[in-house]
């Protein structure tokens, strides 16, 4: 990921800027040698034989594939955001999470808040990689390495967390080229994963000074690329494709959370892990089957024999509150209900009753949402939030 230039043999993301292991291959034959400031601090990473699927026989497992470049790999803090994500998901009660991918190992550990924590280390993060392989570039392409390893089809993830583009920006590539290549990468992923899977396409962090940042102000460049990322995610979403936007850039405090100008420091990775955990938790809760309410309609027929006229009166179904404040009808009252109200009010075409978004307001949800009894307003969101806070 080196500061606006190709570092080749001078300490690139993959340890010396070179992939060792048969003198070729996308990841040195599955082993990264980081003896010169590489991602893994000089430790070799040998993938497990099962392709990172710890529990392929357990259909109840939720399989998550972290995919991307050295930020996904975890340069600067072994395990990166992945170890924190694993930890926070378990703290939320998710004990059925399986991180998958062709790299890493089934179990690793780190010290967190004074205790040893074990996490699932499988992933698909490749140091120095761009979206697609670039001629003359020192790294490979994420698109090519995943296809070569048949990574998505083999791991069969339910969720892909995709953060890619930092090395493209360091190479001063155009956002239009990146947009086209993001489509190629995502099209491949969608084709090889289950139809009910979800890709979270994320923005990238800032690029600052330090060893790899180069020192130049890249804020405008990063903002332009991140706007492209959002556009790509929304393009897919508007067509009913299972791709949604995520904003890692927004959860970090600019360059203050970077360790070397490109890669987050431990605090930055922790923030990323916490952000991903919240997003995944919200997604999994909203993906639960909706509560179905059956309403019986009564039809009354009145006949006047003198004129032989039949009048049929149908009583319209009257929806009743199934659970006050349960806007998304998942049977629970939480912040996702507050979020859906605000989304429906701000963008009714997408999140309202006739919205195009996968999760949008339904007629039943609207009835549940009107806790103040005066129609759907911001006041309902505030009332639900107060209830959650016990106020």
3D structure, described in words:
The chain is an alpha/beta fold. The protein has 2 domains: 62-286, SGNH hydrolase (Rossmann fold, 3-Layer(aba) Sandwich), CATH 3.40.50; 335-389, no CATH class. 35% of the residues lie in helices and 12% in strands. The protein has helices spanning 70-73, 80-91, 142-148, 151-155, 166-170, 175-192, 210-213, 219-238, 248-251, 266-286, 335-346, 348-351, 363-369, 378-389, and strands spanning 62-68, 97-99, 108-112, 115-119, 124-125, 159-163, 198-202, 243-246, 299-304, 309-314. Strands 1, 2, 5, 6, 7 and 8 form a 6-stranded parallel beta sheet that branches. It has a two-stranded antiparallel ribbon with strand order 3-4. Helix 2 crosses helix 10 (266-286), helix 6 (175-192) packs parallel to helix 8 (219-238) and helix 11 runs antiparallel to helix 14. Residues 1-50, 54-58, 290-297 and 302-316 have low confidence and may be disordered. Residues 320-391 form the Dockerin domain. This is Lysophospholipase L1.
């Amino acid at each position: 990921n080196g500061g606006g230039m190709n570092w080749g043999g001078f300490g690139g993301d993959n340890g010396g800027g070179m992939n060792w292991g048969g003198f070729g291959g996308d990841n040195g034959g599955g082993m990264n040698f980081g003896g010169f400031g590489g991602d893994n601090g000089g430790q070799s990473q040998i993938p497990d034989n099962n392709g990172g699927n710890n529990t392929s026989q357990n259909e109840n497992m939720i399989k998550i594939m972290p995919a991307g470049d050295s930020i996904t790999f975890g340069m600067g803090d072994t395990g990166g955001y992945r170890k924190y994500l694993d930890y926070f998901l378990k703290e939320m009660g998710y004990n059925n999470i399986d991180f998958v991918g062709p790299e890493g190992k089934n179990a690793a550990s780190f010290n967190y808040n004074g205790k040893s924590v074990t996490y699932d280390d499988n992933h698909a993060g490749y140091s120095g990689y761009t979206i697609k392989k670039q001629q003359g570039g020192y790294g490979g392409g994420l698109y090519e390495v995943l296809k070569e390893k048949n990574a998505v089809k083999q791991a069969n993830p339910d969720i892909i967390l995709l953060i890619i583009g930092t090395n493209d920006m360091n190479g001063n590539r155009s956002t239009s080229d990146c947009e086209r290549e993001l489509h190629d990468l995502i099209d491949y992923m969608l084709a090889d994963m289950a139809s009910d899977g979800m890709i979270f396409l994320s923005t990238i962090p800032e690029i600052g000074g330090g060893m790899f940042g180069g020192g130049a102000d890249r804020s405008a460049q990063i903002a332009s690329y991140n706007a492209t990322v959002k556009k790509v995610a929304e393009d897919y979403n508007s067509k009913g494709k299972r791709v949604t936007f995520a904003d890692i850039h927004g959860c970090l405090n600019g360059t203050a959370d970077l360790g070397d100008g490109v890669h987050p420091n431990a605090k930055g990775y922790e923030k990323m892990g916490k952000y991903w955990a919240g997003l995944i938790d919200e997604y999994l809760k909203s993906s639960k089957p909706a509560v179905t309410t059956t309403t019986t309609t009564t039809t009354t027929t009145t006949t006047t024999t003198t004129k032989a006229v039949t009048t049929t009166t149908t009583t319209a179904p009257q929806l009743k509150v199934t659970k006050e404040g349960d806007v998304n009808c998942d049977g629970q009252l939480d912040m996702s209900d507050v979020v859906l109200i605000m989304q429906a009010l701000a963008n009714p075409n997408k999140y309202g009753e006739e919205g195009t978004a996968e999760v949008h307001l339904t007629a039943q949800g609207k009835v549940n949402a009107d806790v103040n009894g005066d129609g759907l307003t911001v006041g309902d969101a505030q009332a639900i939030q107060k209830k959650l806070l016990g106020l």
